[in-house]
Please model this.
Amino acid sequence: MPAYTLPDLTYDYSALEPYISGRIMELHHSKHHNAYVTGANTAIEQLEEARATGNLSAVNQLEKNLAFNLGGHINHTALWANMSPDAGGEPHGEIADAITEHFGSFAAFKAQFTAVGAGVQGSGWAILAWDSVGERLVIVQLYDHQGNLTLGMVPIVLLDCWEHAYYLDKLNVRADYIAAWWNLVNWEDANERLARAKTQLNGLIIPA
Model:
């Protein structure tokens, strides 16, 4: 049995139009995300074989392959839930209060997050994360799918800044893609992720 499977979307590929086209969503989910699922399962199988045979000469590369592909799978699984055809606008509930507390206002947060996403060099993500050590929200860049996110950071809202997320719609104009994406942010999902992050990780990284 494969360790990882491609999750179904809770909405149709075309449901996020006009902000993200159905064609982009179909390719992004069925091709790109599926490739990461396949890659993660392949890496798991190859690591099992390496352990069984005692041949660990390629273990470093296999671990990198697992991290890259598993990161891609996990990030995209969260991304799909982070977006909704009936979302966007300003946040509400606990996530709204936390954004105001840690960034001053939603407008200041939105400006910083937009700049972080636009400034990702090459392939990567912009992420609003819960820092379980500092007990605060922070905005970070994630390189590729797995680099530059420290332990104890729990992603709450993720924006895929890889060109495959927008190139068919926006060509190379990432700023237009980010502006459209704000209309799809599922703040209810963000509230649920924030609540889980606070419950599950506080005190676990650095014991009291």
Q: What stands out?
A: Residues 93-201 form a domain with the minor pseudopilin epsh fold fold (CATH 3.55.40.20). The beta strands are 124-131, 136-143, 153-160. The radius of gyration is 18 Å. The chain has a mean pLDDT of 94.
